[in-house]
Protein 1
Amino acid sequence: MTSRTSKIVWSLSAVVVLTLILVVAWSYHVGKMQGMWYRWTGDFQAFAGAIQRGDVRSGDSTSRLHALLGPPVVPPLSEQARYRAANRKFAAISPGEYPDGVEDSDTFEQYETGGILWSFQIRAGRIINFKPEHLVPPKLLSGP
């Protein structure tokens, strides 16, 4: 093999390896891109995409949620008590939607998009009673 051919083979190999590294890195961060876009814009579609593509589910840690969406809004203690009371009523009406129930130690963290606060119920640093498929775009909540 000539010196020139050897250089071409090594250059092409380096390009292929670099491309593979970039594809793997991009694949790893794809779920986080939606979260970054939500943090910058507050866009509902980015919020929903970050939740669904980031695969946030009940039982996941709040640190995973924070890594995906940034720091939450934490309501004051008086509001936390109101959220617990409301969730207790909802859980009594529809226990299947609230399989973890509501305890006095539960807290709530929120994210804002389009003027709507989306609440996550937290117990011992874990998300509970949450189903990503329940995210409804704000235009559907506000009517026609």
Protein 2
Amino acid sequence: MPADLISLDEASWRLEKSGISGRALAELLVTSERLLLGLLPGNELPASLDLSRVTSFHAEPENAVIAGNIRWTEVKLDWRELRLAFERRGRRVSWWFACDITPAFLERTRQPGPRSRFMGNWRPTGQMFPAPAAPQPARRARPEWFADAVFTGPIPPSGQPPRGKRGPKSGKRENTAAAIHKDLKDSVPRRQRTSRANWPPTRGITRAPC
């Protein structure tokens, strides 16, 4: 997965600005290749989320998702790959980086740099990048958007059986294996009892007279 990642919260904010619902995101994620990266409980290294066999999915605020009753945290994704996935489904994501060019952004670019102020030059420097600003709170979609970011179904969208189940015939195979194991277990003591009853062998052996 590419290194240029954004948080799930930031992605939710951009999608909401583009008019894409949380439900649409949930459907896309469970029917696409692995697009998410997150942490499992107790792990330190992130891993990609395989959603091909889950029957339930819910995206939550603060960069968390619940997939198949497992809660992943610190979830991130590649924004470019997400946009392309939506476009392949006929949904255009209208948000792009120019949307972040706000009047406040432009005002910061007109401020003279620190070196210009020290030299007595208070004219705008015309720099393309704004001066460092105070950290902004994380952006995320509204709670209603996350409440709708849910997918549930009787079977996974991929058609593959959920993890831990090998298909409709798995029960028959397990029952057959259990019956074979029981027969073997029951047959061993009988052979042992038969052997002990016939020991020592007497057929063909003549006792010497005392």
Protein 3
Amino acid sequence: MRLSAVAISIAGIVTTVVMATRTVIRKNVAATSKFAKAIADVIKKLSPILAPLGKLLGQLIMLGAKCLNFMVNNLGLLVMFIVWLLYDSVKGKFTRR
């Protein structure tokens, strides 16, 4: 008699915990769904602004790649320019007075 009462009590506790967990999970799913919908709405509203910014960013990256390609192809000119700048900046420091 006592064993069945303990089993019924444990079953009741487990059922209560499972149902409470299920309720919490359902509420969290609903909140997550609302959050995802809100984020999607914000992105949808910002898409006319974000699309040109993305295009501009892509163009800037392409320009940087072209500039880097130019510098690599003309590395000798770049080195001569840097040496000329260094010489010009220090030529007055080593002259005799």
Protein 4
Amino acid sequence: MAGRSLRRVVTNALAVRAQLLLGREATPLEYAEDWVASGRSIADLARAVSADLGRPVSRGFVSFVCQRLQPDARTRIANARAARRRSPLTEPLIRGERREASVDG
């Protein structure tokens, strides 16, 4: 499959996932943003798209496609990833704090 054809196929697979999971008007970029904001990696997305297509698609290629969905796609995906890192659950880890586990009993 030629590069442009594969790019179209991956974009369409992301569009289908977006519409099924986020609603009829959702875009592939919104899906990619939601994916990384939820803590999952582009490598995980590549595995999911590969399963949908029934053929392997590399993490690098899925990243390439996602970053070119719109002119600001790279920034939007980076912002979604950064927002995940700054969530209340992960903020102490970013600052290097360790929470001690306590067992009440």
